[in-house]
UniProtKB/TrEMBL annotation:
HAMAP family found in the cross-reference section: TMP_synthase (MF_00097)
Protein name as catalogued: Thiamine-phosphate synthase
One Pfam assignment: TMP-TENI
Binding site for Mg(2+): 69, 88
């Protein structure tokens, strides 16, 4: 997959009254490399409509587009990849369906990270580093020590995720992360573009 540093996930609950596409375009203008559609509440037709709109937007800007969970939606809109949790379809099954599209896997301990790497994941999520209200079924924060463990033991790209804000990202980078993934810290910001630029300033240091 293309090199990336800043990965933004949609979270419409964090910008009530603002259009999702407009918010994600601001994030793109701020420099994000990847956008993921993550939507646990919409029905299929609505999800598909959002995926189509994001596909169009990301294609226009040359940004990678990933769909969370819904492999069928990802295939239908020709997303660049999918992101799966530990309880979703097994990676080898997903691989059969998506071919050479990107597959990302959420991991919460080293054992899961090593397994995902062996199974052929293109990248893994590493978290939640800090406490987050974004993911409801989330495990307890794993802390920066998990980031350190992954940095020392995993060769595929990994993104640190969970509760990352401008105020604590330095700790995550100090632990060895070179890529971060953010929901509320980006889309819930009053200055989405400026926040992305500030994250990138730190990532590029
Ligand atoms: N996955 P925020 S934590 C979607 O640890 C997600 O796998 C996580 O949202 C994981 O940046 C998380 O608002 C939520 O804390 C991240």
């Amino acid at each position: 997959m293309k090199e990336f540093r800043l990965y933004a996930i949609t979270g419409e609950q964090f910008h009530p009254g603002r259009d999702m596409i407009e918010v994600m375009e601001e994030a793109i203008l701020g420099g994000v490399d990847i956008i993921q559609l993550r939507d646990k509440t919409s029905g299929k037709p609505e999800l598909l409509q959002k995926a189509k709109a994001l596909r169009e937007l990301t294609r226009k800007h040359g940004v990678t587009f990933i769909v969370n969970d819904h492999i069928d939606v990802a295939m239908e809109v020709d997303a660049d990849g999918i992101h799966l949790g530990q309880d979703d379809v097994p990676l080898h099954e997903a691989r059969r369906i998506v071919g050479d599209k990107i597959i990302g896997i959420s991991t919460h301990k080293l054992e899961e990270a090593l397994q995902a790497e062996r199974d052929g994941a293109d990248y893994i999520g590493v978290g939640p580093v800090f406490a987050t209200k974004t993911k409801v079924d989330v495990v307890d924060p794993v802390g920066v020590s998990y980031v350190r463990d992954v940095a020392a033991n995993i060769r595929i790209p990994f993104v640190a995720i969970g509760g990352i804000k401008l105020g604590n990202v330095d700790e995550v980078l100090a632990a060895g992360a070179t890529r971060i993934c953010v929901v509320s810290g980006i889309v819930g910001s009053s200055d989405v573009r400026g926040t992305c630029e500030a994250f990138l300033g730190k990532l590029n240091k």
